[in-house]
Amino acid sequence: MRRVCHVGVALVLAASAGCSAEAAQERPSDGRLVLVSGRDDHGMLAEEQVEVYDGPESPTVLGRIDDGTLARVVDAEGQWLQVETVEGDPVSGWVDDFFLRGEVRLVGPAPGCEPLVGNRSQEPGLLVVVRAVRGGQVLVESVAGSGVRGWAPRDVVQELPPQGPDCGEDPPGGHEH
């Protein structure tokens, strides 16, 4: 089984270092958005769309959310989170936390991969949380103590740090499956 608790740490438990039963039950929202991810533990795209269900551990699929879409968490039950997309097609339903990322990377265009926040260049791969989406912009805030906060182009937000000469998201030499 591929149980990895990406959201248990990343979504709302800034002080916690892991995913425990206690943490999963006390998951208050801190206002950040999550990135829906169809990537496996190695960063390779495994599913282009993530299924959402009508309830925790339900077999009934309500819809699908494209990999890389931002969503808001509206409820939680154990490792299952109810999400609503904030961009793209409106989709709402329950998703296993394996498919959600509360922290993302900022990666600009090649050759330097430097993203802009406001009008200031940032370190490629800067780890941030997304607070809001407005048009083609996202409000981001750095995770580490660098104090970066501001609006950035939506297209600089991705799950993985810069990869290869094109700053792409797929690991070099990897293949989608």
Keyword list:
177 residues, mainly beta, five-stranded antiparallel β-sheet, globular
Give an account of the 3D structure.
Mean pLDDT is 84; it is low at 1-28. The chain is mostly beta strands and 177 residues long. The chain is globular and about 45 Å long. β4 (70-77) and β5 form a beta hairpin. 34% of the residues are buried. The strands form 4 sheets. The chain has a 5-stranded antiparallel beta sheet. Strands 13-12-11-8-14 form a 5-stranded antiparallel beta sheet, with no helix packed on it. A two-stranded antiparallel ribbon has the order 2-3. The chain is built from 2 helices and 14 strands; from the N terminus they run ααββββββββββββββ.
